[in-house]
Amino acid sequence: MAYYIGIPLIIAWLLGVAIFSPRPATPEPISSKAYGCYANDLAPPILLNADGMQILQDGFPLIGYRLERHKQGITLIAEAPITASQKEAKYAYSIDSRGIGKFLSFYKEIDGRRYGVFDEANLDRFKMLANDGMDLLYIRGPVSLCGRR
Prior knowledge:
mainly beta, 1 helix, 11 strands, about 15% helix
């Protein structure tokens, strides 16, 4: 009789350990995996390097950034509340007076659909949502697109 009670208790304990034991933490992505020049036809290019995030627009300050893992994929976090507004046919950046930063999602495109990126080897495009709701899609290109900065 004790045999029939003990087996279910052992199975329940094993299931509890398997389900509720902490999972090993996945390390945050390494910033250097995203280094490079990202370009968009409608907005200034963005250079990511060890110094920080440089939006190549006259007078725009160098800002810090980091990469984080989120449920939807790896995200580039600008450490200033940057915003893009349409000026004539192009977009210009400014730093908003409110907020603490901006989340820019890396993505990959498959059959015309965008999906989050979870692999650090695929950090070659991210999107910035402009004030008017337009997605500014940035694609990593040759560093020459950013000039010698």
